[in-house]
Structures are given as C-alpha cells and as structure tokens.
Amino acid sequence: MITFDHVTKRYPDGTVAVDALSLEIPAGKTMVLVGPSGCGKTTSLRMINRLIEPTEGTILIDGQDVQAAEPAQLRRGIGYVIQQTGLFPHRTIEDNIATVPLLNHWGKAKARARSRELMELVGLDLQMARRYPHQLSGGQQQRVGVARALAADPPVLLMDEPFSAVDPIVRASLQDELLRLQAELHKTIVMVTHDVEEAIKVGDIVAVFRPGGHLAQVDTPERLLGAPADDYVTDFVGFDRGIRRLSFFSADSLDLDAEAMVGEDATVADARALSVPWVLVLDSERKPRGWAASADLVSLPAGSKLADVPLAPIGHTFRPGHDSLRSALDATVLSRTERAVGVAADGTVLGVTTYERLRTAIRAAEEAADVQAADAARAGAAP
Amino acid sequence: MNWPLLWQYTGANALLGVLPAVIGLAIALPLGVACARWRWFYVPVLPLTTVLYSIPSLALFVVLIDYTGLSNTTVIIPLTLFSLCVLVPNVVDGLRSVPPPVRQAATAMGFGPMRRLIRVELPLAIPVIIAGLRIAVVSSISLASVGQLIGVSSLGYFFLDGFQRDFPEEIYVGGAAIIALALVCDLLLVQTRRLATPWSR
Predict the structure, then answer these.
(1) What is the pLDDT of residues A155-210, one digit of tens each?
(2) Of the candidates B176, B148, B132, which has an alpha carbon nearest to the alpha carbon of residue B27?
(3) Min CA distance, B198 vs chain A (Å)?
(4) Average pLDDT along chain A
(5) Who contacts A286 (Cβ-Cβ below 8 Å, separation ≥6)?
(6) Residue in B99, B109, B200 closest to A80 by CB
(7) Binary contact (B110, A88; C-beta < 8 A)
(8) What is the secondary structure of A194-245 as a DSSP string?
C-alpha cells in the first residue's frame, strides 16, 4: 500500500503543484491519477520514487517513509514507465530490460534469462533481443519499457502517461495488455494519464485531480460515472457517462427470454403459436439462424418449415458471462428487431433480450451499486 | 626522395598531433562534465578556452622555451590548450544531447549520478565527443609543423628546409604528407566511432 499523508509540493517561486494531498493506494490495485495538465498528478507520481521531493508531508510504501530510503536503492524497488519510453539507445533490448537486475548484481547470464522471460510476458518476439531501441516501433518500444520496469519484480509500478505517445489502436492494445498482465501479477500500480477513458478502462480506482493540486474525487470507475462528486467531475468524465457506466455491469444479470425461439425444423404454425412479434430461429446446433417476423408469418403456409422462409439477420450477439450490459444494449440498439441474442461461449443460444428486460437489469444493477457504495462509505467512516 | 627522413618526421608529427588531443580530452572530460552539471561554471570556461585558442602558437612556444626548452613538451602544451577550445564545448554538447527522458529513466531505474554519467550519458555523448576529437587531432597535426621554427621535429621540417634551399618540391611533399597524415588519423577516428557506437548504425 502507498500512503500520501498531507503531501504538499511548493516550488521556490511559490507555485503549489500539490496541496496537502492525502491518498491511499491499496496493494495489488491499479490507481489512476487523472486530470488536466498542471493539476499535480505527475508531480504526485514522481514524489513516490523521489524524482521530486515533497515540501511537506510524508509518503509511505508499506509503512516505510520513502524519505528514509537511499534514493537509488528505493528506485530499484519501484518500476517506472514513461511516455517517451526513455529506453537506453545504446543498449540492446535485452540489456535495456536487464537494467535493474544488472544494477542489483544478478550477473549477466541470469539477468539476460530474466529479460527473455519478460519479453515473452509482454508479448515481444525474442528475435528482437539483440536489436537496439530505434529499430522497434513505438508500441514495441513501450512494451520494452514495461518489461524493463518489471524486470526486478518490484511490488510497485509507476506509469507516467505510458501510452499517450502511440496511436489509438496501439494504445488500446497496450491497455488490454496491461490489464492482462495486472490480472496475472497483482502489482500496486500508479498510473498518470490525462485521458479519462484510459483511466476508466485500466483503473481499479481513479483519482480525479483538479487544477491546483487538489483531489476532486477518488472512486471506482463505475462510481465516477454513476455518481460524479460535483460539476467539475461531471464535466471531466464527459459525455454519455450513463451509457459508459453500463460497461461495469455484467450482462449476466439479464433475465433472458428462452421461450420466443424455435428450431429450424419447426413450422410456421409453431412460430405463430408463440405470439411474439419476432421469433428467433435456431439451426440444428442451437446457434442463432435468423429472426422471423410474425407479420410475415401470417401470410405464409402454416405447414412450411422455418428453414425455408426468409429470415431477418441476427446482427451482433453478446455473451452474458463475458460481456457487459453496455454490449447487450448496443446489440439491441443495432438490431432492427429491437432484440439481441445472448449466446454461450460455444455460440449456442441462451436467450433473447428486449429493451424491457434491459431496463429491468440496468435499474437493478444501479441500485445494487448504490447500496454497495453506501456500505463502502459506511465502512470507511467507521473507526 | 629521402623516405627514411619522411617517415621519421611523419611519425614525429603524428605524435605531436595525437598526444595534445588525447591529453586535451583527458582535461576536457572532467571540465565538460562539470560545465554540463553546473551551468554557471560553463559561463567563464567557454570564453576562457576561446581566448586560449586565440593566442598565436609561435608566441606560446617562445614563452614556454624558458620553462620546457626545445622539447616536444613545448609544442604539446600549446596544442593541448588549443584543443580544449573544441573539446570542452563538444563534451558539454554531447552530454546535453542525451534525451531528457533517457536521463530521467536512468535516474528512476536507480542509477546514482556517477554511474549514470559513466554508463548512460558518456556513452551517448561519444559521437559528439569524437566529432570534436577529429577537429582537435587534425588541427594539432597541422599546427605541429609550426614547432619546426623552434627546432622541434615535425613535417614542418620540409617547409623550412624547402624554403631555405629554394626547393618548392620539398615543400609540396611536406604539405602532402601532412594532409595524408591528417586524413589517416581522421579515418581512424571515424572507424573508432563506428566501433564504439554500434547502436547508431
């Protein structure tokens, strides 16, 4: 755990970058510091490994005051990733990654073996081991940066706008990669970004800073979207937060309709009997085949097989155990039947959702989240 | 053509060209590191090296004869001082050419200031430092011939002897030898840089 206790950074000219910041970053979680430029988020990050010294207050890592440690020694125990990668141009990829192990006297062979292990972990081709940084793409360089930060297996990882210099597609894949790594490694990560989308995507907890080095809100991404503390945070998290918040609710909570469907061997009469506006037709493997409109079914011979009648396309499907309510809503919005099909991992149909069912699920999820937040607030307020 | 004599003076001239640059580098490195580290220190050092460079070499030779006699040292000392005029700024520029994120990353990885200097900053400054060394060596090689006026052996011998005997071919040979020597030394330095900085290829 990292604890900021009334930490202030005041520069000689009187500028206050960080003002009496108190913040707790739980062990094994990702905390994202987000805010406009000049809000003190980067200064706060750099005070953790003493690249910047606080004017007042203390920063503790697992109860140890960072000011009491020898700076170089302290920093070898804290991974650090920066925007422009800061890779050493004169060292090969494997030696770049082995930097901290070599500083810690692991020996060349062991350090290089560790480099290769990390290259695999972050998804770099081992053939790149002997190349120099400038021979790699921006995204690959950033992976090397992450690998280098993880080389000595530090419990804490600081990331200073790590993905802001790469294009949006590469950025998204690096974010996914970070989430995958974190699920495996459980580091205490502190990341700085000015991109609130990134904060919401990768953070377990997001600390929103306001100009002048003050905290505006510290909350889970879902709470940030669901209950922004004030107008500043509301503005900051931006447009359509209600929809974005749905990403944090599992589509598992949807009560799917498993009745309004028939196999392709069934007849038009069977489909009519269901008396729903749209009937989902399944193929022989119970995978969705298409939608039959009841309006069309009336004019068709009652005995014909559904396999032979024209069907509307399925469009997007969603996976209840895997996707969020946002995906389910999106699939529903995009479907001209105003219905979306929930499927299992193997593609077989679990059931159908409608706006009606979505509305119920969303309301229930929001209420549950509010209760949870209230409980958490009570627990936090308790002595 | 007196080949043994030519070789002898070429060797002597090479020594007078290379030694001042090497000694100059040994002085310029700590000086340049200090100047890069403390900006205020660079303020007096930079004009000082320029002033040194502006002193006529012959004048310095004559002054030094009283102390070091008619020896190589009398030529090496001024040439060393002259080399500082290019070497100090190049060491400073070389160190300043290290990208700030690289320096910051090195600090954040846990390099102390000294280790960072030796393992990260100086290696990255090599191309700029060697560029300065090339100028220092070439100019020392050519200036060394002036030492002949006070009797210190160099390829300048052929200029003086050719002039005194009214024998222009000898002067041309001396000139060609100096140019050839300078080119060879320069090529060696270019090669050294290539070998020392495999990452920049």
Answers:
(1) 999 999 999 888 999 999 999 999 999 999 999 999 999 999 999 999 999 999 99
(2) B132
(3) 8
(4) 92
(5) A263, A348, A349
(6) B109
(7) no
(8) S-HHHHHHH-SEEEEEETTTEEEEEE-HHHHHHS-SSHHHHHHH-TTHHHHH
Residue B9 has pLDDT above 60, yes or no: yes
CB contact at 8 A, A285 and A348: yes
Is the Cβ of A72 closer than 8 Å to some Cβ of chain B?
Answer: yes
Of B105, B124, B197, the CB nearest to A86: B105
Domain regions of chain A by residue span: 2-239, 252-361
Total-model pTM:
0.83
Domain A252-361 has CATH 3.10.580.10: yes
DSSP state of B150: G
What number is the ipTM of this complex? 0.85
Tokens 């280790």, located at residue:
B115
C-alpha dist (Å) from residue A19 to A236, A307, B56, B127? 20, 69, 60, 44
Sheet holding A317-318, edge to edge: A317-318, A339-343, A349-354
Chain B: which residues have CB within 8 Å of chain A?
A: 99, 101-102, 104-112, 115, 120, 123-124, 197-200
Domain ranges of chain B: 3-200
Q: Which two tokens stand for residue B34?
A: 């200090």
Report the CATH number of the A2-239 domain. Answer: 3.40.50.300
A161: left (phi over 0), alpha (psi -120 to 50) or beta: left
Fold of B3-200: MetI-like fold (1.10.3720)
